[in-house]
């Protein structure tokens, strides 16, 4: 995804352009980080995760079950390594990049959960990510035997009712605030999140951070990453067109906005988008008629290299 290294973008595309079940979540997550850190040692970062999984296996007793796997994973990640949720600087972009999380020991719910899942998978256990509204947790096991783990809270266990309460707190229940949400009502929010959904959510969080900072160059590469993961996301297309416009890439913005209009649901505010598209096309025509110098200026240049945060 790096704006300065096409092979990184190509690598990310190759990793995610397969059926969802075949996506290597760790590889995709590391390539997201490579978009910020083009010189990152990809193989070494994978090796760090593999070593953590080996340490988990070493802690497992000969006869072990799900509780043992959770306990061993918690021991390695939160006791030995000292990982924890960053509650002071939650929106620090470094909390979204796995190498930074391992270096600093701080992360956000989704990145800590990805690490938890990938370490657990390599240790022989399959954990599922659950994208609750406003939070992200892990489910271990199936059905009534399922256990819920909160990596952002150092691997604390949650009951199903506590998960439902988190959902209710996030989505609200107009006129029925005092009535507990039922299991059936909460069920749609507690289904496992697929790998594409996890990557989209990771990237969407990053995109919003960079948009809030008016860092349109970084926001652009993240939005392009979302388009690679979920080409049909019309929400992202709207943001991408805005970012391209801010960077003076009017022709690209017009193409993106045209695609957005084809995919946005009926009833959405499409009139303003049509007006914006008309204005963009007029600007493209105006720049072309002004000559090659104006075209070069309007192109907005290439995205600059992203320095590593200190």
Task: Please summarize what this structure is.
With 310 residues, the chain is an alpha+beta fold.
Unreliable stretches, pLDDT < 50, 5 or more residues?
1-6, 294-310
Portion in strands:
5-15%
> Rg to the nearest angstrom?
22 Å
Please state how the strands of the largest beta sheet are arranged side by side.
Answer: 3-4-5-6
Shape annotation = globular
* Count of DSSP H/I helices: 14
Largest sheet: 4 strands, antiparallel
User: What series of H and E elements makes up the topology?
Assistant: HHHHEHEHEEEEHHHHHHHH
DSSP E strands, number: 6
Name the average pLDDT: 88
Q: Which structural category fits the helices and strands? A: alpha+beta
Helix content: 55-70%
**Ends: how far apart?**
21 Å
Explain this structure:
This protein has 310 residues and is an alpha+beta fold. 58% of the residues lie in helices and 6% in strands. The protein is built from 14 helices and six strands. It has helices at 6-16, 25-36, 42-59, 66-80, 98-104, 109-122, 160-171, 183-186, 195-212, 216-229, 234-246, 250-263, 270-289, 292-298, and strands at residues 84-85, 106-107, 127-130, 137-140, 147-150, 156-158. The strands form two sheets. A four-stranded antiparallel β-sheet has the order 3-4-5-6. Helix 3 crosses helix 6 (109-122) and helix 9 packs antiparallel against helix 10. The longest helix has 20 residues, at 270-289. It is globular and about 75 Å long. The chain starts with 5 loop residues before the first helix and ends in a 12-residue tail after the last helix. Mean pLDDT is 88; it is low at 1-6 and 294-310.
